[in-house]
Amino acid sequence: MIKAVVAGAAGRMGTRIIHMIQKEAAITLSGAFERADHPAVGRDVGEVAGLGTTGLTLAGSIGEAMQGADVLIDFTTPESTLDNIRHLSTTGQALVIGTTAIMGEQEEELNRLAQGIRCVKSPNMSVGVNVLFKMVRDVAMILGNDYDIEICEAHHRLKKDAPSGTAMHLAKIAADATHRDLDSDAVYERRGYIGIREDKEIGMQSIRAGDIVGEHTVLFAGTGERIEITHRAHSRDNFARGALLAASWVVQQPNGLYDMQDVLGLRERKHV
Fold this sequence. Notes:
By secondary structure, the protein is α/β, with parallel strands linked by helices.
C-alpha cells in the first residue's frame, strides 16, 4: 500500500486529489497539509475536503504530514513547491509535481534537487493532455514549416498565470519539432497594426472566464486547409487521476526527474 500526502489539501486540486485517493485500492491518504496560517489547519482532512470524518488532521507543515509517507502530491505554488522539494531532498521521499509557472532560477533549483530523489514533474497530469503532447509533436514534425501554428487556451477566471503551463509546453513541443526558437518566435496576443504574419510565429492566445476547467487547441493552418487538435477538461478529476498514476509509478523508480510521458510510456526513444 502506497502512503500518499497531499500538499495544498484545502485547495481546489487538493480536495479533488483527496477524493480520488479515497477511491483507490493501492493508495492510502497518510497525511495532508496547508500553509501554517491557513484557517483549516487543525481540522479533520475529510471534513475540509467534504468527505466527512477521516481521523486525519490537516497539518500546518510538510515535516509533520510526511512522517511515514512514501510520496507527496503537490499542486500548490512555485514558492511552496520549491520549499517542499528542499525538504524531501533531505528525506529521500518521492514527489509528484503538478504546480505550474515554475520558471527561471526556481526551475533550475527544482530540477537539480529532483535528480536526487524520485520525482515526476509535468505541466499537465491528464492522460489525455499527454497524448495531445505526443500528437502535436508528431503532426508538427510531419507538417514542418509549411503550416502556421497557433495555440489557444481557456481557463477559469481565478487562474493567475497566462499562458497556461500546458500551452507553453505545447508551444515548446511545436517549436522543437519545427526547429523554431520559442523565445524569439512566440507571439502573445495581437493588437493594432501588426503587419503580416511571420512564417515562424507561434501564436499564443489566452482566455480567462467563468469556471472553465481547461481547454487547449493547437491549430496548424496551411493553404486551403487546417488541422485543429483540441483537448477539453470537464473536471479536475482527470488531473487527479493522472497524479495518482504518477505517484504509484514513481515510487518504484530509481532517483531522477521524470514526467508523464515517462509514466505513460510515451517517451520518444532514440534508436542506438
